[in-house]
Amino acid sequence: SGKTHSMLGEEGDPGAQPESGLIPRVVKGVLEKAAMVNSAPKSGASTEIMVCCTYIEIYQERLVDLLVPGDEKPAHMIGPTDQLRIRSHPDLGVYVQNALEEEVSTPEEVFKLMHNGNAKRRTGAHYLNERSSRSHAIFTIK
Question: Where are the beta strands (DSSP E) in the chain?
Fold first, then answer.
């Protein structure tokens, strides 16, 4: 149906060309705006924008933090745990408590996090796709 192509564009193209997908263009736009605000001359109170990402997998009603560094399997991928919890806050909105947040400043950093997290996702094969996701994932930029 073209969902992946619409969202990501050509594989391996993290640029914001017109043919790029929605995600690369939005990521580039957000980070360019943050850089513009951060580099603007400051008068009086200083404003700085910090951009952070989280990447959570939901599999069989369990939350998995896909940003745990390296190839190590986080405890919540091995057995039951209550480390990650979905919470709601009046100012922050809905978030995952104890999820690892990575600060980013370039589109390349964002796509590296996505790539590394995707490698940890649970997949399986079926007759239409040899590497089909068996879970849902939420990549958050804030």
Answer: 51-59, 62-65, 85-89, 93-97, 102-104, 123-126, 129-133, 136-141
Phi, psi of 8 (to 5 degrees): -105, -20
| Buried b / exposed e along 80-112 (16+ C-beta atoms within 10 A) | eeeebeeeeeeeeeebbeebbebebeebebbbe
pLDDT attached to residue 88? 95
Which tokens belong to 47?
Answer: 């404003």
Which comes out higher in pLDDT, residue 100 or 128? Answer: 100
Nearest to 25 by CA among 129, 88, 33, 128: 33
Q: pLDDT (tens digit, 9 = 90+) per residue, 2-47?
A: 566 677 777 655 555 656 788 888 999 999 999 998 888 877 767 8
Structure tokens that stand for 107 in this block: 């589109």
What is d(CA 66, CA 8) in angstroms, rounded to the nearest whole number?
19
DSSP 104-123: E-SHHHHHHHHHHHHHHS-E
